[in-house]
Amino acid sequence: MWYIISLLSGFFMATADVFTKKESSRTQAIVLSWIREAYALPFLLPILIFIDIPPIDWTFVGAMAICVIIDLISTFLYMRALQIAPLSLTVPYLGLTPLFLLVIPTLVLGETLSLAGILGVILISIGTYLLQIDRAKYGLFEPWLTIFKNRGSLYMFIVAVCYAVTATFGKLAIQHSSPLFFAIVYFFLLAVGFTPFALISCKGKIKPLFQFQMKRIQIGLAMALMAVCHFTAIGMIQVAYMISLKRLSLLFAILYGWWFFNEKNIRARLIGGTIIIIGAVCIAFA
Q: By the number of CB atoms within 10 A of the CB, which of 29, 131, 148, 201 ranks highest?
């Protein structure tokens, strides 16, 4: 069951991304950020009726605060990346998160890399290279350097780093509450955090936030289903197993980019995305 739920989490994440990409042509990135969280609340809040509310301690509060602050930044960058760059070229960079989860403790704590970890780093590097293999004609290292030249890729690269940090504190917050309670509170706080920025972006007018409701409800429903599947699976199995399967969202996103937006170089990006996922699995089980 956890296997299926984890796969569904990745599918709904990629589905939310393609709906967001469609909406991005007429909506500012900061408003998109608000939509992703706020439109999921009507589907998430009723869950509170059916779950036990855990006691709250200061560890939960502190970990939640760190996650929300960082995610306010990373969600905005995520939306800008989807807005200005191809779906198949941005979302796959989220596969770099396990790389940072492996490398950061090594640099800070002096931990040694295992053989599986080293293999994972190599595979992720190869996969990242293949995502922009078409740039190799301009130089051997150009596919890697392009990450920092293409704003969409750069923004998603930063998001991957942020997710490595929030993954740590998010796990801590869940340990001091419960998976579904954490998900609901998390989305609520992010929606509240984005509200003043969204209103400023709309010049104080509320109406633009509730336009195109059916299209935006699709985003909210996909995000709500992703959150329920994500945190339910985490409660059933080790995080490393769950995240490894959820990384299949990278392949869903690449295929969506081809189907809905006629994006190019899909074969190379599928191969690159697959290799990144294999590398992430190696790191997860290192």
A: 131
CA angle 197/86/26 to nearest 5° reads 40
Tens-digit pLDDT profile for residues 43-84: 999 999 988 899 999 999 999 999 999 999 999 999 999 888
Q: What is the pLDDT of residues 160-209, one digit of tens each?
A: 888 878 877 887 888 899 889 999 999 999 999 999 999 999 988 888 89
Q: How far apart are CA 179 and CA 259, in angstroms?
A: 34
The residue assigned the tokens 């509240």 is 192
| Rounded alpha-carbon distances, angstroms, from residue 48 to 18, 181, 230 | 28, 7, 17
Domain boundaries, the chain: 2-105+148-270
Which token pair is 46?
């009723």
Assign residue 85 a region: left if phi > 0, alpha if psi is -120 to 50, beta otherwise? Answer: beta
Nearest Cα to 19, choosing from 164, 227, 202, 214? Answer: 214
* SS3 label, residue 56: coil
Count CB neighbours of 125 within 10 A. 16
CB 123 within 8 A of CB 275: yes
Beta-carbon contacts of residue 273 (< 8 Å; ≥ 6 apart): 92, 95, 127, 131, 250, 251, 254
The number of C-alpha atoms within 13 Å of 149 and in the hemisphere containing its C-beta is: 8
Over its C-alpha atoms, the chain yields an Rg (Å, rounded) of 18
| Integer CA distances (angstroms), 124 to 10, 66, 96, 253, 274, in order | 19, 28, 7, 17, 9
Percent of the chain exceeding pLDDT 90 equals: 31
Q: Among residues 154, 187, 156, which one has the least CA distance to residue 170?
A: 187
